[in-house]
Each structure stands twice: as C-alpha cells, then as structure tokens.
UniProtKB/TrEMBL annotation:
The chain crosses the membrane at residues 34-51, 78-99, 152-170, 182-203, 329-347. Gene3D superfamilies: Immunoglobulins (2.60.40.10). SUPFAM superfamilies: 4Fe-4S ferredoxins. Residues 250-279 form the 4Fe-4S ferredoxin-type domain. Keywords: 4Fe-4S, Electron transport, Iron, Iron-sulfur, Membrane, Metal-binding, Transmembrane, Transmembrane helix, Transport. This is Type cbb3 cytochrome oxidase biogenesis protein CcoG. It comes from the Bacteria. One of its GO terms (cellular component) is plasma membrane. PANTHER family: FERREDOXIN-TYPE PROTEIN NAPH. InterPro entries: 4Fe4S_Fe-S-bd (IPR017896), 4Fe4S_Fe_S_CS (IPR017900), Cyt_c_oxidase_cbb3_FixG (IPR014116), Electron_Trans/Redox (IPR051684), FixG_C (IPR032879), Ig-like_fold (IPR013783).
Length: 464
C-alpha cells in the first residue's frame, strides 16, 4: 500500500487548469471499455464494404440519395430518417434512465478518441507521474522526439478519422485514388482538414473539458437520472469513516471503514472526479474507478465492490420500483415502438420504382372528332435504382381505353423523377358515369430485375 500512498501525495483534483494524466489500470471494466471502443471500427472499415457494384452504405449527398445495402432512400423517404433519429434519441434516454451515461463512458466518440490518444501518450511518455515530470522538464532532444512522435501519431489518427468520415459520402476507393493522385475536390479537402484538426484538438487537448463545457448531453442527463438509476456508486456506508491502513493494526482492530483513502479511484478517473463525493456532473460513468478500487480491496483481502454499479435507493436499502411500474418506461417504450413500426412500414413499402399520376384540370376532358373522350395526365416516374430504366407505361380498368403513343418508352433516370405527359382516349359510348377509375402501370427491366409500379387515378367524362 505504501507506494499507492506515495502516489496519492502527488495526486491533484481536476480544476481544469492542468491536463489530467489518468493512470491506466487493467480490470474488467477497462476490458469492456476496449470492446465498446472497437464499435468505432465500423467508422473506419464500413465504407469499404461493397454491395453489388457499389459501396454498401453510401450517403450520396450530391445526388440526394442514401444507399443502405439493397435499399435506396431518396428525399421523399427522409421521414424515415427522422423516425430513426427519434428512436435513437429515446433509446439514449432509456439507457441513461436505467444505467446512467453508458454512452459517455463507453461509446461516445469524444471519450473513445480521448482514451486512444491517452493510451498513445501513456505508451510514449510513461505513467502519469512521468508524464507530468516530462511536461515540466526543459526541452531537450529526447523530449522533442517523444512529443513529436506523439503529436504526429495524434495527427495521423485525426487524418484517418477525417478520411473515414468523408468515405461515407463518396466512393471510398475513389476517395483514396483521388487522394494519392492529388486530385481531391475542395469539399473533401476541407472536410478532412476540419476533422483532422477537430479530432486532434478535442481528443488531444480539450479532452474532458469537452464533456464539461461543450457537450449539451452532460447538462440534460441530470433530468434523466434519478435515485433508481444504476450507476457507478461509492458505498459510503461501507467505506466511511475512511482511514489509511496503519501498520500493526489488524483488520479486527480497525475502527475505520473499508476506504483506505488511497486515491486510486481518482488517479484512474479520466475526468479527475472523486466519486466518493457522490454523483457529479463530471462523472462520465466509465466505471474505471470500480476496477481501481477492486484491485485495492483485493490487495487488502477485503470484499470488492466498495465502488460498484448500484442505485442510490438500493444503497440506502430502499426497494426499487419494478420497471413496469415506472411511467417513464411506458412513455419511452410507446414512442420507441411507434418509431420502429413507422420505420418498418417505410422499409416494407419502399419500391425501387414509383409512379405518381396528376390528372390535368384544364380542361378536364376533350371531346375528339371521332367521338371519343380524351383526358390528359402527367406521370412522374421515380427511379430509385442506380441505373436508368427504359420504362413502359400501360393502363387498365376501363374497357376500350387507349393510351396514345403507348409504344413509346420513357427513360426513367436513376435517382430522379422523370415526368411524362400522356393522353388516354375512351369511346364515349363505353363510359357509363362521369368519373371512372383507371390504373396506370409502369414496368421496366434493370439487368435481371423486373421492376413494376402502379397508381390509380380517374378518367373524367361528360355528365350523364
Ligand atoms: S468517477 Fe469513476 S465512473 Fe465517473 S468518470 Fe471517474 S472513473 Fe469514470
Ligand atoms: S474508494 Fe477505493 S480506490 Fe477510492 S480511495 Fe477509497 S479505497 Fe481507494
């Protein structure tokens, strides 16, 4: 224990004036954090996944269409995107209400990138005490070499983050080809530069200050967390009165609680929080203090869990209300289910080819010299595929109806709405009423795939 107390002498609480050099320690929660960090590999590897002849997930802003595997989403379907965002916002609220800032502690890109930057720093500069010493040391060749390597690595990660972000919006392989041939467009260059600098500054320098001062989520989480939320909590019943381990005093003789005031929980905290003061805004709930305290307890032969995931109610011996008796859980569940149903409906009704029919109002109909009645329509054919489709138009629903120039094929341009004006003629004697339902069909072949769409409209004749 002596070496831990020595270290504690040099430990300071975070006041925002100094860089926090958190100690890195192995443990169960540290491993979980690495697993969670690896979630972000999706950002780096995702753009290289192919689907047929194109990128599997491509947010093609210039052509205003999103490709997600076999599905193409055009601006007309963006309401689904709103539902998806709503679903994840509520999911975040549910997770926060139940288990605190899991997102902050384990998944948020700010904390994940900061953690990776700090890991590089730890590998190059050593443990926190060495790092602080190096910061204060005068510049010499060794310090320049270490600092230069660290900042270069940070910049490389920032640059790769920028490239990976942009690769979701353009073809990833083409992006690299343009990059190595120095033919990148200005938008891509500016985006990559902004991401490189942003990542470097936020993860390398601002670190936990971003959570304190810039992130709005840190502010609003207070209304989502209550006494029933299970979060990393210091068991003050067991820990207090805290007191240092005294030589010659056996476990049976001691009059202090289990906390030995070693400050290890603060030493590993990436935001410099002392969790023994209760829940605080600065705590991102990464649970690393649990690992630190457990390792101390194991060394002393005391039970682990002095800091553990626990709700305040449970800590105070109150019975926690069952989940289904909490109105909040019901409200969240209803909104999430509604959002999921909406997304499911949208996905199941997404067609590769869509048709809209607008009946001309002026005039409603024209009497032809051969005695037939003619109606004019504007068809809008939406092609969500990646290639142009030769679309054939036909009608049904009225016996004897003729589509003028029916053999003409319209090229439905990919990712666009193609308008086409058509005329339908029906011999007057075949019309039995003023308005008769008529169905427009559009059919086209793209490769092996036969695509079809239809839309009902009305045919208008004179009054009877
Ligand atoms: S107090 Fe514990 S859980 Fe909170 S941020 Fe610090 S190490 Fe993570
Ligand atoms: S809570 Fe645990 S890690 Fe923190 S000071 Fe007390 S014994 Fe040390």
């Amino acid at each position: 224990m002596e070496e831990l107390y020595d270290e504690a002498e040099h430990w300071q609480l975070n006041t925002g004036e100094e860089t926090i050099h958190a100690k890195r320690m192995k443990g169960k929660w540290r491993s979980y954090k690495w697993y969670a960090n690896s979630f972000w590999l999706i950002l780096f590897l995702g753009p290289y996944l192919r689907w047929g002849d194109r990128q599997a997930v491509l947010f093609d802003i210039p052509n205003r269409q999103f490709h997600i595997f076999g599905v193409t989403i055009l601006p007309q379907d963006f309401w689904m995107l709103s539902l998806t965002l709503l679903f994840f916002a509520i999911l975040l609220a549910v997770v926060t209400a139940l288990a605190g800032r899991i997102w902050c502690g384990f998944f948020c890109f700010q904390t994940v990138w900061t953690d990776i930057y700090a890991w590089i720093e730890d590998k190059l500069e050593g443990a926190p005490q060495k790092r602080r010493k190096l910061d204060k040391a005068p510049w010499n060749v060794n310090k320049i070499r270490i600092k230069l390597t660290k900042h270069l690595l940070w910049l490389v990660i920032g640059f790769l983050t920028g490239i990976s972000f942009v690769a979701w919006f353009v073809d990833a392989f083409q992006l690299w080809a343009d990059l190595v041939s120095f033919t990148l467009g200005s938008t891509a260059i500016i985006s990559i530069a902004l991401f490189t600098v942003g990542t470097y500054v936020l993860a390398g320098f601002l670190r936990e200050q971003t959570c304190f001062w810039l992130c709005p989520y840190a502010r609003i989480q207070a209304v989502m967390i209550d006494n029933t939320t299970v979060v990393p909590t210091y068991d003050f019943h067991r820990g207090e009165p805290r007191g240092r381990v005294k030589k010659g005093v056996s476990e049976e003789e001691r009059t202090t609680g289990d906390c030995v005031d070693c400050n290890q929980c603060i030493a590993v905290c990436p935001t410099g929080v002392d969790i023994r003061h209760g829940q605080q805004e600065g705590c991102i709930m990464c649970a690393l203090c649990i690992d630190a305290c457990d390792s101390v307890m194991k060394k002393l032969g005391r039970p682990t869990g002095l800091i553990r995931y626990e709700s305040l109610d449970a800590l105070n011996g109150k019975e926690s209300r069952p989940l289904l008796k909490r109105p909040r859980v019901w409200v969240y569940s209803i909104i999430m289910t509604a959002a999921l149903l909406g997304i499911g409906y949208g996905m199941s009704t997404l067609d590769a080819l869509e048709i809209k029919v607008i009946h001309s109002r002026q005039p409603l109909f024209v009497l032809q010299s051969d005695g037939s009645i003619q109606n004019k329509y504007t068809l809008k054919i939406l092609n969500k595929m990646t290639g142009d489709i030769p679309a054939k138009i036909s009608i049904s629903g009225i016996d004897g109806a003729i589509l003028v120039d029916a053999d003409l094929v319209t090229t439905a341009r990919h990712g666009k709405v193609t308008p086409r004006t058509v005329f339908v003629r029906v011999p007057k004697k075949l019309l039995k009423q003023e308005t008769t339902p008529i169905i427009f069909h559009v059919e086209g072949q793209l490769g092996e795939e036969l695509l079809k769409a239809q839309r009902e409209s009305i045919f208008i004749g004179p009054r009877y």
